[in-house]
Design a protein that fits this description.
The chain is mainly beta. 9% of the residues lie in helices and 35% in strands. Helix 5 packs antiparallel against helix 6. The longest helix is centred in the last third of the chain and has 13 residues.
Length: 486
């Protein structure tokens, strides 16, 4: 057949040798009607010649796909399916794949079955096997952009089943290099979209970069019937944040007294956020001498990625990843190497993301919603007031304007780690002074490596700026609260 094929119920294969051969030049349509074809051979004259289904097609024996483009027309007609039993043989020439919906019937557990191309494979195990499974695979060339357009391999996968309970699925996902969208092949993992949020399967994952596929095992039945894609789970945060306490208006930088005085190397080799209210359980640490080798480090900071529909809903329950790092004297936030931006693997990503920054004795700040780009990088300059989230009705701005500067910094003075700055913090600092306390303490709110009246003054200054509470003349009773929804 060298033109369009429309079976009006007059053509039926009768033996195992019968074959329908679609050849010739040009684009054609294929409507097999209700008939089942024993063998189908697609061998068009040119690679660009298309064979497009105009109805569901049924095959019983073998598919030979040598030349052309074979599509079920999934965008325009998503109900059309190319259907064949699991016993049917699919023989693909190099680089050939079926675009759209492929169904395999007569399903049984335990054997890998090929769908749209040799590396689009699926196996089920345990439970009760479904009677059939349909795979929808749409490459970039056919508008196969996964839902929530962002950083990802540009190829869409969807699975559906009939029957079956309690089974798990092992899936091999294929792609082509032109769809990578700057993702790194050596770090690709499958992601499923569950209740509107993309969930990454960081393990178990097998990758074959030379042959362009990624596989995972043990997908539950509930997770299986969702949209899937491939993406690199590593996301990087390029952030700049200034702390009010160590700010030096003369230099336009933050002071590094705790570092230059040896306090960080002596008392802060491990991340300091494993206490209330942070309760971060990580074991991140650096080796002795690290801070001396990185003299521009001011202190540790804790970074949070939150996912919610709006910033007021980005509470602690929406945190999908946390990681400690360091803030440098110019405000740059860096990873544990002291040089590169904070980066981490995340298992959950969706459209609305909010990045929080926390410090031991400064009030935390959260960004407004951040879009990612094709290389998985978020950028937020916390020196700009508009880049920080401010709750409706908040008594003060989420950050303070730094002296002799157009930059904003985090409010200092949370000496008791309560998330508010008030008279209790002043009392804690005065008690530390009375006890001649020293060291890597929360009461050193200006990070000077010494606890004295300057810490008291800074904390009172924070309190006095608040626009709510208190009695005139008694500013220490006023309150400034953290602007991160907890």
């Amino acid at each position: 057949m060298q033109g369009n094929f429309l079976n009006t119920a007059t053509y039926t294969t009768t033996s195992a040798d019968d074959s329908l051969i679609l050849s010739g030049a040009g684009n054609v349509t294929f409507n097999g009607g209700a008939s089942t074809y024993t063998n189908l051979w697609i061998n068009k004259a040119a690679a660009a010649n298309r064979v497009t289904l105009t109805a569901t097609a049924f095959l019983s024996g073998k598919l030979d796909y040598d030349q052309g483009v074979f599509t079920t027309d999934p965008i325009t007609n998503p109900s059309f399916v190319f259907s064949a039993p699991t016993t049917a043989v699919f023989d693909f020439a190099a680089g050939k794949e079926i675009i759209g919906n492929v169904r395999r019937t007569g399903w049984a557990n335990g054997s890998a079955v090929v769908f749209n191309q040799p590396n689009m494979q699926l196996t089920t195990n345990a439970g009760t096997a479904p009677t059939d499974i349909t795979v929808t695979m749409i490459p970039l060339t056919e508008s196969g952009d996964p839902t929530d357009n962002e950083r990802e391999v540009k190829r869409k996968f969807q699975f559906a089943q009939t029957g079956g309970t309690g089974f798990t699925a092992d899936v091999r996902f294929p792609y082509v290099s032109g769809e990578l969208n700057t993702n790194t092949e050596a770090n690709l993992v499958p992601w499923g979209r569950f209740t509107g949020v993309w969930n990454g399967r960081l393990t178990p994952v097998t990758r074959d970069a030379p042959n362009d596929w990624v596989s995972t095992t043990g997908i539950t039945q509930a997770d299986f019937v969702n949209e899937w894609k491939l993406a690199d789970p590593r996301y990087t945060m390029n952030a700049i944040a200034l702390l009010r306490g160590p700010w030096n208006s003369g230099t336009g930088l933050m002071g590094t007294n705790m570092n230059s005085g040896g306090l960080l190397d002596a008392s802060a080799l491990g991340q300091p956020f494993n206490t209330t209210p942070f309760n971060y359980p990580g074991t991140e640490s650096v080796s002795a001498g690290f801070f001396a080798a990185h003299p521009t480090i001011v202190d540790w900071v804790l970074c949070e990625l939150r996912i919610a529909g709006s910033p007021d809903l980005a509470t602690s329950g929406t945190i999908v990843g946390r990681k400690p790092g360091f803030v440098l004297s110019n405000g740059t936030v860096v990873d544990l190497d002291g040089v590169t931006p904070i980066a981490s693997d995340y298992e959950l990503i969706s459209e609305c993301r909010f990045y929080g920054r926390r410090h031991r004795n400064h009030l935390g700040v959260m960004s407004n919603s951040l879009p990612s780009n094709a290389i998985g990088t978020y950028t937020n300059d916390y020196r700009v007031l508009a880049n920080a989230y401010k709750p409706i009705g908040a008594p003060s701005d989420p950050m303070v304007l730094l002296t002799s500067s157009s930059n904003y910094g985090f409010w200092g003075g949370d000496a008791n780690k309560s998330g508010v700055v008030n008279g209790t913090d002043v009392s804690a600092i005065k008690n530390a002074i009375a006890a001649s306390s020293s060291g890597y303490l929360f009461t050193d709110v200006n990070l000077s490596n010494s606890i004295n009246g300057t810490d008291v003054s800074l904390t009172k200054g924070t309190i006095s700026v608040s626009g709510s509470g208190g009695t005139p003349g008694r500013t220490v009773t006023r309150i400034v609260k953290t602007n991160i929804p907890d």
